[in-house]
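Good day; I would like, with your permission, to put a structural problem before you. What I wish to show you is a protein chain and, alongside it, a tokenised description of its three-dimensional fold. I would ask you to consider whether the tokens describe a fold that such a sequence might reasonably adopt. You will find the record immediately after this paragraph:
***
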Amino acid sequence: MPLDIPDAPVALGAGVVKRPSRLADGRELIYYDDPDTTLGSGRAVDARVLDERPETATMRQDVLTGDWISVAAARQSRAFLPPAELDPLAPQTSTNPSEVPSRYDVAVFENRSPSFGPALAEAHRGAPAAADPPEDLTDLARPGLGRTRTSVGRCEVVCFSPELTGSFGTQTETRARTVIEAWADRTAALSALPGVEQVFPFENRGEAIGVTLGHPHGQIYAYPYITPRTQRTLEGIAHTSPTLFQDILDFERAGQRVVLEGLRWTAFVPFAARWPLEVHLMPHRHVADFAETTDAERTELARLYLLLLRGVDTLYDTPTPYIAAWHQAPVHVARDSYRLHLELTSPRRGAGKLKYLAGSEAAMGAWIGDIPPETSAARLREALEQASV
């Protein structure tokens, strides 16, 4: 069915206001206003003349593993380290025809060159129709040589701030709470789209990770399948216990690797960490995704997550590159056993040293850790003490 976007603003949790809009080519744009916003209620119209949206990418199945690889040639044209005056995520000006027409607090919009999507039944908005979408998860699980499917789904950009530089960790606690509200709102909306099986919010930070824009932002991917990493975790749950995430949390809270703890969330370096810097952040209560979190859980998360990121940046004299990956349960299965959690990883193993995935890790998936997790946890606790002063 068509995705209806109301014109009227919508009140969300913590005083955040959602203002739906559209870009010139029909892509969805949503503003999320802080509770203490200084912005007015009006929003400028995107008056750009844009090219037609690219054809939806095609997935190819690797018959050796069953994995689906999206081939998205349109991504070759995306912005690559543009000068500040041409920041595509900054509010539009007369000299910068960016992606966001108005000044904003937080803005979310559909990626112009997505790896997945548009989703099914969105051709009414100028989006290309899906020529050969997956039938269901059973269809995707069926192996065969030369199998392809249209890469339906959605890729969205989440702008944390109109400022030109920064990251999630440089935001205020109020702004962090607004972003978390946006994550929850988008998780619910994307989960309701036809063809979407899993929703993944994340932030890539630093050129060492491959970031091509210095603007403080993250992304949300809505996949047409359950990702390989999640499938491995579901296999682990099936082989151990449906309460595996709670078992892990209890195990870590009783050990030496906890780095930060609140009433509703705990952060820890995992027992079998792969990366030189790896921290997991997990809610104490079972929730499948951001949409299931309470106001109290979101409010505490804003404070603890900012402290965690600032502690990570206190480890060295320069900002630490990282991937902040928010793992959520699949949309239609394992909702009672797969728990929302953050996995924050960094390849940084020293002030001027990075861990590169060489033969054993990259080719065989056989990891060799550089730093004992207990040592990493102790260093991070010291950094968090400095960051909280």
Summary: The chain has a mean pLDDT of 93. The first helix runs from residue 137 to 141.
